[in-house]
Amino acid sequence: MAASLRSPGWYRAALWTAIGFVFAFALVVGIRAAADFGVVVQWDSIITVALVTMPIFFLYGIGCFDTWLYWISGRPTKPDDHSDHGAHSWKDYFKVNTDHKVIGIQYIVTTFFFFMIGGLFAMIFRAELLQPGMQFIDAQTFNGLFSAHAALMIFVFMVPVFAGIANYVLPLMLGAPDMAFPRLNALSFWFLPCAGIMFLASFLAPGGAFATGWTAYAPLSDQAPLGQTFFSMGVQFAGASSIATAINFLVTIITMRAPGMTFWRMPLLGWANFATSLLVVLATPFIAGSQFMILFDRALGMNFFDAAQGGDTVMYQHVFWFYSHPAVYIMVLPGFGIISEIISANARKPVFGYRMMAFSLLAIVVLGFAVWAHHMFVAPMQNWIRIPMMFTTMLIAVPTGVKIFSWLGTMWRGVIHLRTPMIWALGFMTMFVLGGISGVMLAVVPFDIAVSDTYFVVAHFHYVLFGGSLFTIFAGIYHWFPKMTGRMYNETLGKWHFWTTFIAFNATFAPQHLVGLEGMPRRVADYAEQFAAWNMFISISSFVLGASMLIFIYNMVYSWRSGPIAPANPWNAHTLEWQVSSPPPIFNFDDVPTVVGHPYEYGVPGARHGIFKEPEPVVAAVAGDSSTTSTDEGEPAPA
Prior knowledge:
This protein has three domains: 71 residues, no CATH class; 448 residues, Cytochrome c oxidase-like, subunit I domain (Cytochrome C Oxidase, Chain A); 67 residues, no CATH class. The chain starts with a helix and ends with a strand. It is mostly helical. It has 20 helices and five strands. Helix 6 runs antiparallel to helix 7 and helix 10 runs antiparallel to helix 11. The strands form two sheets. The chain has a three-stranded antiparallel sheet with strand order 3-4-5, with no helix packed on it. A two-stranded antiparallel sheet has the order 1-2.
């Protein structure tokens, strides 16, 4: 036990987490005593400080800082024996690990855990909305449930699950042995459960969970109970995870591509994550800043958003949405890369307009920062800014349209294989186009003002983020499941999962356009009798949608344990990750591949994306004969 407490792991993490709370307690009490405020215990202050110290102490205990602290202390650097690299048993997924493949699976499994909890919260508040009146939860609990639902889905599922898929796939695609900064990669993952646990732990705070929605608008969030502080600190840890991961991706993409892999030979998943990482690095500090200002208002009595003291509440919305609209593309661009890989491989055709696809990804990065105020058409801001924001919001549909036409052109006259990843990709295209149409409608100022804060807006962003982003996530997981696990999933269950999700999703969210146009407000625990029939239909459909996820979970767990052994390249794809075994070796490649062609040259005779070093000929051990050598087939060959 003593050795376990000295070495990094869960025993030491539990101990140091407790020490972190004691440290916060002593720090607050000590400062108050030194400042002559008395020694009365102020639990709000202690918990606020503990939300900083306990995660940091936990990260130390689990082992995230050990190597860095050893180096910072001035001691000689230890040679790395790679003992913490790779998964040799299931226990290695519960430790700090520097293998990008292990970290990728850690990301995916952890984010889906929070996804299921967020979905459960949605089921609870949809049960409350089955009929008018208050059934079994009060309005404050309702507000806490939908706020936590949104925070979990956005900050600890939708954004980081793409990082998990890219963590596993991207270094393999680039021909790299790992990410550029393996230890930073591990740290960025372990930030994530800290954020998710904070969001959930807010339900235990005095006064209940944060209940201001995922937008946490001031001054409401300034005046909310202590649970709001859990949200603000959770966003900081989730944001730190995103920024660290994005920096890692940028450096990996720029510096660690295989020989011969120019940017114009890089798969579109690489382009998509390059563009996404630029957005994350540029935009995420803004939401961190907005939540720091909320924390300073709440904990230190500052007045950033107190209008009576000279603060500006509209400023909060500008800062928040300057991140949060680019965040929509952070949750969509990686999916564009996933869909490009799947459609090309399953249509057996090169990507139509490859370079325009890459340029359109970068165009969205630029335009994504020019549309934030379309979320504020009903806010008391200057009238003149509404018009340019309306035009830029419409303009950003152009590079998105380029992708739709590219995917259609790729499939045109292709030999299409309707495997599970492909039908998820086709479902995504349908749902995302519908979400885009309602998005263009919301770009028009008079229409946006008319439907603001109604269920029409709820329907729109669920078509974009659920029908869009989540469909690409499922497509990517099914596509790379054989590579990640070495097993094949059940194709029949995969298709059942798609069709139940597709039908239940449309039955849940399509009617919300109608009730929104009729005036039903969003974020309400009770509603008028005129909306009762549609709300019952929506709630029942949402329960079917939730149940469809159980098919996915069963398929993944059962197939990972007992599915048929997967070949190295079940889809006959060309990109580099499919040219190694399933699952890949610990350091990906025995020899660094050389890229000699485009990754999507399907149908081109003799086309190859990458070549691997051929085995050296072995001199034949034949007495008295040095004129021949032996090839790897055992056949003699001329010297």
